[in-house]
User: Fold this.
Amino acid sequence: MGRWGRFWRLPSQERRLLTTALVLLPLTRLALYVVGFRRWQSFLLRLLPQPHPTAPADGDVKSPLQTCGEMTARMVQAAAREGLGQPNCLSRSLVLWWLLARQGCPAELRIGTRKKDAALEAHAWVELAGRVLGEEDDPHTRFADFEQPVAAPPRS
Assistant:
């Protein structure tokens, strides 16, 4: 059975998220190259059913919101691992941000930079209720993030 067996054993919500991520990841990578970040983010924003809700207060107990965020991040990671091409961190983060926003989760898209040797490196990630999603280690320890999350353009 292998991959297909694992896919069909997933709950239906996870299958939908994984399928959407499998389609969106290569499409997003191509769109970022062709139309750029702001235009693609604006297009994705127009596909959302409603505006982002306000963020819940941070707490020590995992909320249903955080559980949903972790599940969505796992499905995006699986799609990145098993899908077409090798999506970069910006593609993965933009898809994760959009999938969470579509579920009504007020996720933040973050970008950080660092200087390594003579090169400037950048990294993108998603935070939900102050917690980093889909990263093995905290990117704050490796990258200096911008003070504000990447703001989505206004919906038109």
The mean pLDDT is 85.
